[in-house]
Amino acid sequence: MQNTPTTTLGYALFATRWLQAPLYFGLVAAQGVYVYKFFKELWTLILMCVSGHATETYVMLAVLKLVDVVMIANLLIMVIVGGYETFVSRIGLQGHRDQPEWLSHVNSNVLKVKLATAIVGISSVHLLQMFVDVHHTSHHALLWGTVIHMAFIVSAAILAYMSGPMAAQSDRGHADRSAAGRSPGDASRTGHAPEEHQPEAPAVALPAPRRAEPVAAPPLARDPLARDADAEARIRAAGFPARKLLEDFDQNHPRRFDHETVARLGKADFVTARRNVVFVGPPGTGKTHLAVALGLRACQAGHRVLFATAAEWAARLSGARAAGRLDEELAALDAHPLLIVDEVGYTPFDAATAALFFQLVAHRYERASLIVTSDRPLGRWDEVFGASAPALTDRLAHHAELVRLDGDSYRTRRTTSAWAE
């Protein structure tokens, strides 16, 4: 139990981050100044060209000035939006069609590297201006301009080199803290200990969770995930039954398939936004393939993922309940921002097991993400979860992307084609 005065003091200190908000609005005003400067320079250039007084050197220098203003404005945008998102409060642009690509994975390390890169770009423009106007620039200014520019390049390279190990160490530290907070029994339930330590589920006769063998990484040229050792470790720990990529999905097979939604989900922004994904369709239409592929993308984005079938999750939660550790199990699963529940609907559950699934969904509601695959629409989940279905589907679908896949079984189609040949 936390000390209330200490907690209050911590909340008060955390609230002081809002003191930075006016600073970012001040930078917005500075952005307006640069907009004014840009159009002033542009208007001057137009007048000089129309009057015929603009030489080639003048036009080149004027254009470089415009580029310089735009790059500084870009730097301001990154500081304003990225800094506010990182240090003050979430903006909540996940899913917005105009969300910048870099904002989906922004953090302090990424922000520092991007700012350093932007400064190098601005310095490059300034140095180019000096060389274009070399006849009016002293050798002393050229020398120091080059030295300062090289210093920026070296600093950015060092910062980029250091940010990788720092991010990996942060991710490993998070995993170590999560593991330290669990007892050995908890570790066995999260799949990092031999199966013989897992408590059996006496309440229901369900298949024991299967242990997926580590999937061998394909060649580096094919799978960029293999280049990231930390992502590879997360993939192996996730328990995927096989390695499936979005690029390998046969998009022409399902008769109805929302390509744009799946492509957007492939950015893994839904995990950061704590949203859910539900794939619904007949057997063999690629639901598990897409669920695993999104899980791989989430691992690549730095998130810990755990995969199991609905029957396996039922056995796991039933075992935790039988051991009197259900609350601890649900809390331990919080270390995984994304859980994947495959094959909902293939095995109906009794009321007690359905209640466990409701507790899982309710516990993660607006706190973490779920990917669920099912052979039937949410309106028919009462056939699987009985009386728990309405409350369960209400929480699952509230912040969810529902992707419908229609078509014949891909496996059956391939088998039929093989017989035909």
Automatic annotation (TrEMBL):
Q: Which InterPro entries match?
A: AAA+_ATPase, IstB, IstB_ATP-bd, P-loop_NTPase, UPF0114, UPF0114_bac
- Region feature (Disordered): 170-209
Is Cell membrane included in the keywords of this UniProt record?
yes
> CDD domains from the xrefs?
AAA (cd00009)
Topological type in the membrane: Multi-pass membrane protein
What transmembrane ranges does the database entry give?
A: 18-36, 69-88, 109-129, 141-162
Its localization reads: Cell membrane
* Low complexity composition-biased segments: 200-209
Q: What is its main location?
A: membrane
Which keywords has UniProt assigned to this entry?
Cell membrane, Membrane, Transmembrane, Transmembrane helix
Pfam families xref list: IstB_IS21, UPF0114
Give start and end of each AAA+ ATPase domain.
273-406
Q: Which family does it belong to?
A: Belongs to the UPF0114 family. Belongs to the IS21/IS1162 putative ATP-binding protein family.
What is the designated name of this protein?
Answer: UPF0114 protein GCM10023086_38250
